[in-house]
Design brief:
This protein is 35% helix and 20% strand. A hairpin with a 2-residue loop joins strand 2 (14-21) and strand 3 (24-30). The protein is globular and about 45 Å long. The relative contact order is 0.15. The chain is of the alpha/beta class. The strands form two sheets. A four-stranded mixed β-sheet has the order 3-2-1-4. It has a two-stranded parallel ribbon with strand order 5-6.
Length: 168
C-alpha cells in the first residue's frame, strides 16, 4: 500500500496543511485541513494510507517559508493536480500568472477558448487543492475588484499585498 504524507505548519500567521504523494505535492490547503486531505486521498488515491510526516515535505515547507518572508517569487516543486479535466486546465492557467500579477476570471475563460466559462473558471479556482503554489489568489474580478477566495478575502488581500499586487 502506498503512503501519502501530510503536515500542518504556520508561516507568518498563515496555517497550511500540505500533502505529498510519490514525491509530488498534491495539496496545500489553508488551516488545519487533515480531514480535507484525507477526503481527497480517499477519492483519488483509495489504496493509499495517510501518514503525518514532515520529512517528505521539507522542500515545500522551506519554499513556503521563503515566500512568506518575501524572498521567493516562484515555486520549484513537483505538483500533481487531482480534479476533472476542466479543473486541471484552469489550474494550468493559474500556474502561468506571475508573482505580483493579477488576471480576471474572464481572462482565463478566454485563454481556455470560451469567454462564457467565467463562472466555471471561478468554480474550479475555488476548489484548487494547491493554494499559493498554484496561485488562485491572483484571480480578480473584471472590474479589478477582489472577489471570492476559498482562503477568505482577508487572506487574498494579504497574499496580494505580500506580492505587491495590492497597494491598499
Amino acid at each position: 500500500m502506498e503512503i501519502c504524507h501530510f503536515w500542518t505548519q504556520s508561516f507568518s500567521g498563515v496555517t497550511l496543511t500540505l500533502a505529498e504523494y510519490k514525491g509530488s505535492i498534491i495539496a496545500c490547503m489553508f488551516g488545519r485541513k487533515a480531514r480535507a486531505v484525507k477526503k481527497m486521498v480517499q477519492k483519488y488515491l483509495p489504496e493509499t494510507i495517510l501518514k503525518r510526516d514532515k520529512a517528505p515535505l521539507l522542500s515545500a515547507l522551506k519554499q513556503l517559508e521563503e515566500y512568506f518572508a518575501g524572498d521567493r517569487k516562484e515555486f520549484h516543486l513537483p505538483v500533481t493536480l487531482y480534479g476533472t479535466d476542466f479543473q486541471r486546465k484552469v489550474w494550468g492557467q493559474l500556474k502561468r500568472i506571475g508573482y505580483g500579477e493579477t488576471v480576471s476570471y474572464g481572462y482565463i475563460a478566454r485563454a481556455l477558448g470560451d469567454k462564457n466559462l467565467m463562472r466555471a473558471v471561478g468554480g474550479a479556482n475555488h476548489v484548487n487543492p494547491i493554494s499559493i503554489i498554484v496561485p488562485c489568489h491572483r484571480v480578480i474580478g473584471a472590474d479589478g475588484k477582489l472577489v471570492g477566495y476559498g482562503g477568505g478575502m482577508g487572506m487574498k488581500q494579504k497574499l496580494l499585498r505580500l506580492e505587491g499586487a495590492l497597494l491598499l
